[in-house]
Amino acid sequence: SPQGDTLFYESLARKDGYGLIAGVDEAGRGPLAGPVVAAAVILAEDRPLSGIKDSKKMTARARGKAFSVIVESAVAVGVGVVSHRYIDRANILKASLEAMRRAVLCLDPAPEYLLVDGIQTIPLAIAQRSLKKGDQLSLSISAASVIAKVYRDRIMVSLHSAYPMYGFLRHKGYGTCLLYTSDAA
Question: 24, 100 in Cβ contact below 8 A?
Fold first, then answer.
């Protein structure tokens, strides 16, 4: 049963004869500023990773550690970045799928099968399955979610250096409430 087995969907694909299986996820669909970043990760079948889960359920520090572990132990990691200009010209869904497509095309070796977070498929001629809440169901997608989130956060931190007045260091481009207090209380 898939309950609790984060390699269930990878196992199903292997039973169907696929060897190189990539998890694909993106970060940056919700924010108001910055790029959308996608990652594709092919995990080694013989090296199960512990402590990796949906990036939204991890602390920034845990994500940073997981990022290094994934990069060091994965068969391949690909990252695709789509600028705010592309997002504005197309739309966020098309931009997300394009970032995912770019991430998959960066993988070497190329994957034989994709597990994609969400309900859409990526416009590529590769067998694939989309999984709603895939970042919680599949270890490969969780790994991709960590890579995408950390990579995007690092982009936003570097943008903070150029544009400190926007506070990217604090909110990474996500919508935020600023509480102004008056000294005249």
Answer: yes
